[in-house]
TrEMBL record:
UniProt name for this protein: Thymocyte nuclear protein 1
Record PANTHER family: THYMOCYTE NUCLEAR PROTEIN 1
GO cellular component labels: nucleus
Basic and acidic residues composition-biased segments: 1-14, 42-51
This protein's encoding gene: Thyn1
Chief place where the protein resides: nucleus
Cellular localization per UniProt: Nucleus
């Protein structure tokens, strides 16, 4: 058995998956990473009268906990410094146990970039940028009884949970705190700016979140500004 480093257990802050959400997310055929995404879009289109279909997501925000927290006796801490310490500064993004977040994982494409976001800590916010270096494949932790994210209902022939591999790209030029992003979000809600519908504020608990090009570009532009 190849041993996995302890540090890489989960990137959490998930909602507990509920039955209703499970039923909505049909199991995708083997080898297809798109079906979960299509299913999510269909659901959103029916909720919003098709408005969602005009939105294209090509970037992501990945939440991870930089401070020690034990889950079933295992420390789930994983900061951007932990990522930088991995071989080739690359790791798998395991432990996602929410159906919508899983569908977002399955929609990720090779080379797409994501913000690395420190969550569930004293000052949450964006600390760096990573890129997707391997598209979705089964998350091995779902079958590991010793892992905090073991799922006894998942079968190897039809795994419920997926993960991707990510690689460190760079630190942001400065830490971009949640409080600052939220101030822009509130202003944009009033004046129709690019962060008006940012999922960080509409689905706060999701640990994997999509970003439009406009959202990504605007947040990235904040690294050039002096903090308020």
């Amino acid at each position: 058995d190849k041993k996995e480093p302890d540090a890489k257990i989960a990137k959490t802050e998930e909602e507990t998956p509920d039955k209703e959400e499970e039923e909505k997310s049909t199991k995708p055929p083997a080898g297809s990473s798109k079906s979960g995404w299509k299913n999510w879009k269909k659901t959103k289109e029916s909720d919003s009268g098709g408005e969602e279909s005009k939105i294209t997501y090509c970037h992501w925000l990945l939440k991870s906990e930089p401070e020690s927290r034990l889950e079933k006796g295992v420390d789930v801490k994983f900061s951007i410094d932990d990522l930088k310490a991995q071989p080739n500064q690359t790791t798998f993004w395991d432990g996602v146990r929410n159906y919508q977040a899983r569908n977002f994982l399955r929609a990720m494409k090779l080379g797409q970039q994501a913000f690395f976001y420190h969550s569930n800590c004293k000052e949450p916010g964006i600390v760096g940028i990573v890129k997707i270096v391997k598209e979705a494949y089964p998350d091995h932790t779902q079958f590991d009884q010793k892992d905090p994210h073991y799922d006894s209902s998942s079968r190897k022939e039809n795994p419920k949970w997926s993960m991707v591999d990510v690689q460190f790209v760079r630190m942001t030029k400065r830490f971009i705190p949640l409080s600052e992003i939220k101030a822009h979000h509130l202003a944009h809600k009033a004046d129709g700016g690019p962060l008006k519908n940012m999922m960080l504020f509409t689905r706060q608990r999701l640990s994997i979140q999509p970003l439009t090009q406009e959202e990504f570009d605007f947040v990235l532009s904040l690294e050039e500004e002096k903090p308020h």
